[in-house]
Amino acid sequence: MRGRASLTVAVLLGVGVWQVGHGAWIPVKARLAQHLLHRAWARTLTGESQVKPWPWADTWPVARLRAPAHGVDLIVLAGVSGRTLAFGPGQAAASAVPGEPGTAIVTGHRDTHFRFLERVKPGDEIVVEVPGRPPSRFRVRQMSVIDSRTAFIASAEPSASLALLTCYPFHALAPGGPLRYVVIADASGE
Known about the structure:
Elements: H1 2-45, E1 61-67, E2 72-78, H2 82-85, E3 90-91, E4 102-107, E5 125-129, E6 136-147, E7 160-167, E8 179-187
Parallel strand pairs: 2-3, 4-7
Antiparallel strand pairs: 1-2, 1-5, 3-4, 5-6, 6-8, 7-8
């Protein structure tokens, strides 16, 4: 009887350590990826195109997104697949280039790269750099929660705007769900 109890405790302890390690690995992977992405971004700025941050990557840096009030400095990747978003925020392929007319749509995970969106306020500045252009400055206009099954974001705006999307609620225990938190920012012209 005592042997079974010890075995049960050992198994439960092992499973607990595994779960904690797995949960800790996600933010560590996200930070390590951003370091490698910043190196690939530097090469992108020298004129190389579609610079892969690691040999097996199926994405590349397309922009740099900064939110100075929140200490955020992220490299944005091409595409919004789950594999891409595991390493950084991604820009939707059909959306506008940040700073050009239309809406640039960038999405990221609520528990890693876009966790800061929970603290964003109207008037906050978001700065987006793309290769070959001066940085574009945006001011947050609004935040809202939408249902991804029925809502859409208009991308044919006459002026430049930015939509940052993440899953909602921020502290949900289960991943996914249909709700999205959207931050809309307009070009500030500064």
